[in-house]
Recover the amino acids of this structure.
């Protein structure tokens, strides 16, 4: 079946459900439906471990009876099952408490234009090819160095899906998307030391994934470089976050400026709009309409139109991130962030990774973070880490079993430089981030 026909059929289902909701007493309603086909193959020690096929979908319906909300979902798309789901949602709404902030997004915010963002690049879900790819990836890793002695496996995933959203303001829109990934993790041994590391690649287009050989060798190289890791003494030193991890720093920023954290008064960045949070040279832009972007969309999960935004302007907090509900709680309007962020482009200082090491001089180059010791309410930051000790801009030896700690306010303000070589495999695209000073707890 052609993808256009499938989308049209799903839109018809969504339209039918919305009409049912109104006929059963709802004053407003919204529905979303997704379908996914996929394959996941994993191997270990160059033998097939798992082959999984996915072919599922479901519909969720939320109805509003005045200022009362009820929700239901179903994977059964028969008329009877859809009707029952709507009835249950309406029944739930009648018994819930009134909430003045509930309801659909304001009609004037709803998307009316749906450009083709080229998110769908289908490729046949070929099991034999997937198996061959995972085994080749592991083989490349295992053959890279004699110190690679074991494997935690390689995996290949391919997903082809579509999403449709509609509500009683008139939107009923959807799009297909694709996503492919390949990863590998191996274990290395040297004397009494064992280490592991990984590598991965992800893209909307299968033919733009890094090769099996590249992924395998990158995983092995990262693992071998960690062998012989030492502990270090407690100190206050500069810390360079590798670009693969640096997005997590901005992920904490996302949490702190999200409307839900704000109206609950549970963010260290309360009442910070327009205030200096980062260095003056740093800008962050959101670009939701990047073609083939991993976080691209013309509308959010509530149908609100997504558009280009400045998130950080010359280091200042330029905007908070609102859903419809959080915006109403805070007496403002949604800016299209129900469901998350859309392609953040973090500015840089033009440094190469080698330049960043020189800029740091002596300090810690972090390549792995562990634990969840981050408090968005207070800004306290404390996580386990591993990486490399650097002196005079040159990597000296790997280190492990350490903790890095600081305060996110200070960490953000004291970013010295950001690399120009960016990790583009997620919703935040950034280079490695150099922070002026953090507490390192070791021996």
């Amino acid at each position: 079946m052609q993808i256009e026909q499938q989308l049209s059929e799903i839109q018809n289902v969504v339209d039918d459900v919305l009409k049912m909701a109104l006929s059963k007493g709802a004053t407003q309603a919204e529905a979303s439906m997704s379908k996914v086909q996929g394959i996941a193959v994993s191997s270990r020690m160059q033998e097939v471990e798992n082959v999984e096929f996915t072919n599922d979908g479901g519909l969720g319906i939320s109805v509003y009876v005045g200022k009362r909300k009820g929700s239901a979902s179903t994977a059964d798309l028969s008329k009877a099952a859809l009707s029952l789901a709507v009835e249950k949602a309406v029944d739930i709404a009648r018994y819930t408490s009134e909430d003045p902030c509930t309801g659909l997004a304001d009609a004037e915010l709803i998307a009316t234009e749906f450009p083709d963002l080229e998110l769908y690049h289908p490729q046949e879900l070929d099991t034999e090819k997937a198996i061959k790819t995972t085994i080749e990836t592991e083989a490349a890793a295992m053959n890279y160095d004699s110190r690679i002695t074991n494997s935690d496996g390689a995996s290949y995933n391919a997903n082809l899906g579509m999403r449709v959203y509609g509500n009683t303001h008139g939107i009923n829109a959807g799009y297909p998307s694709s996503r492919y990934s390949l990863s590998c993790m191996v274990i290395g041994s040297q004397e009494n030391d064992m280490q592991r590391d990984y590598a991965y690649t992800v893209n909307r287009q299968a033919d733009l994934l890094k090769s099996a050989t590249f992924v395998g060798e990158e995983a092995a190289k990262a693992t071998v470089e960690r062998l012989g890791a030492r502990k270090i003494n407690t100190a206050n030193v500069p810390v360079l976050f590798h670009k693969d991890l640096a997005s997590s720093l901005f992920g904490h920023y996302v949490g702190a400026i999200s409307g839900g954290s704000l109206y609950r008064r549970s963010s260290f960045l309360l009442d910070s709009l327009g205030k200096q949070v980062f260095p003056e040279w740093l800008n962050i832009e959101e670009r939701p309409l990047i073609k083939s972007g991993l976080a691209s969309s013309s509308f959010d999960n509530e149908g609100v139109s997504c558009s280009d935004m400045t998130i950080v302007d010359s280091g200042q907090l330029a905007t908070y991130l609102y859903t419809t509900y959080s915006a109403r709680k805070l007496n403002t309007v949604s800016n299209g962030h129900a469901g998350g962020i859309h392609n953040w482009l973090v500015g840089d200082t033009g440094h190469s990774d080698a330049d960043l090491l020189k800029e740091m001089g002596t300090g810690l180059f972090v390549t792995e973070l562990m634990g969840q010791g981050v408090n968005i309410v207070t800004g306290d930051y404390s996580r386990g880490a591993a990486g490399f000790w650097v002196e005079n801009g040159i990597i000296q030896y790997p280190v492990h079993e350490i903790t890095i700690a600081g305060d996110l306010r200070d960490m953000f303000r004291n970013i010295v430089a950001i690399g120009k070589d960016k990790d583009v495999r997620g919703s935040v695209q950034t280079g490695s981030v150099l922070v002026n000073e953090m507490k390192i707890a070791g021996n």
Notes: The longest strand covers residues 148-167. The chain has a mean pLDDT of 96.
